# Entry
Amino acid sequence: MTQTLVLASNNSGKLAEFAQLLAPLGFHLKSQGDLNIPEAEEPFGTFVENALAKARHASQLSGLAALADDSGICVPALGGAPGVQSARYAGEPRSDAANNAKLVREIAQYNDKSAYYYCVLVMVRHAADPQPIIADGVWHGSLIEQPRGQGGFGYDPHFFLPRLGKTAAELSAEEKNSVSHRGQALRALINKLA
Ligand code: IMP
# Structure
């Protein structure tokens, strides 16, 4: 039996990626934008709280089960920043170029250039679900000053993977999905659902 699931995001790339991987489990995905659901507030200090708020909001307004993600880059030398502020690290309007410039500037004084991407996925069966299904993924790398690569988005041109000798922006979409924080979280979620 097919179950409709609303994705608490308007990102068409994410919708396509999630829809493809969840279809074999009987889920049909709709984006919240298609259902005229406005974006939820993300006021919390942790990724999981924000993802849960987004999932509950989408479920509440649609009456459907909902899936939400929240992700970002964390830099231990900066106390975990940009973290939940990743999308707007350099303020509004949101700009990848400004965020990257700020991150490169902030990390310059530290020897420890390590960084990791984090993604959490939260699925609720209904808005008041007392037992959300939660899965996450972590992707370790380090920051480089000079950007490399044209792929990906966000901080990818500065996110270097020593074992691959490439930045995340130099990976194909398939390569990135096979190792990324989002890919790991999605596979973990699918394992839980299966
Ligand atoms: P969101 O969870 O998709 O809203 O992502 C939050 C922010 O984290 C993005 O706007 C990016 O700045 C950053 N981010 C999350 N995942 C990635 C990634 O895979 N590559 C580059 N930046 C990312």
